[in-house]
Amino acid sequence: MPKNELKRLLKDGKSAVGSWIGFCDPYSAELMASAGFDWLLIDMEHFPLGREALRTILMACKGSDSTAIVRVPTNSREHVSAALDLGAAGVMIPMVNSLADAQRAVEFSRYPPLGTRGTGPVRASHYMNNFERYRSEANDELVLFVQIETPQAIANASQILSVESLDGLFIGNGDLASFMNGGQPSREVDRVVDDLIVLAKEMSIPVGLPSWSPEEFSTYEQRGAQLLTIGSDMAFMAQGAQTQLSGVRRKQRNAAPSLPELQMNTSRK
Predict the structure, then answer these.
(1) Domain range holding 152?
(2) CA distance 105 to 110
(3) How many domains would you assign to the chain?
(4) What's the CA dihedral at 53, 36, 9, 150 to 10 degrees?
(5) Is residue 224 included in any domain, yes or no?
(6) Global pTM?
(7) Could you tell me if residue 78 is inside a domain?
(8) Is 46 labeled as catalytic in the residue annotation?
(9) 206: in domain
(10) CATH number of the domain residue 9 falls in
(11) Which of 101, 144, 208, 251 could form a Cys-Cys staple with 96, CB 3.0–4.6 A?
(12) Average pLDDT by stretches of 10, the chain with 269 residues
């Protein structure tokens, strides 16, 4: 199987610049994959992406320099197996709240003896043509990221991060703010995020979270986060549309004649 460049970036202590995919259209997925991101996070938790849509997205990403990771809807054998068998380079597990949750994530994503992943990597092994190689390398090459997003998970963070075979922690700061402060940013949420970054670094676990501007990205990077995203396909589309429309509206307003000019032009006729 292909070498996982995202895994190597993180092991070398470097930052990985990622973004989110929520659209299922292969054009938009291919466009994102060719943009130059180190990794892309395909979001099956909050977007209506089924297995066929995921297959299409992964095919559109094939051959690019972006490592395709899937955030599965839930921590279940069914979802983890489907993502990996379709050829994802790794999975992100949402709402990991306990040691047992983290252990289940490892169990579902690793072949024996590390886990109990079932044997059926049809597309991942190039339709079983490279099965032996894929089977022998998958446990080392695939990445497993877990998300801490709740007060319960914060209390259990040390136990969660102590589980072997975890490749990274992705902090769900939006959900943390929702649970802790009704969805509003606060110093308390920032403090918790900083504490999680420090803890993960102490335990040699790459850590990251989403960002929505270059300035925010840089702030988290300076705090020690490596596994970062900037924006998303949906955000980029909305921002581009709004920026261009605002520019057109502004020019229209600047070019529109004033009321006295209109009256003068009318009186001359």
Answers:
(1) 5-232
(2) 9
(3) 1
(4) -50
(5) yes
(6) 0.93
(7) yes
(8) yes
(9) yes
(10) 3.20.20.60
(11) 101
(12) 93 97 97 98 97 98 96 98 98 98 98 97 97 97 98 98 97 95 88 97 97 97 97 97 96 78 59
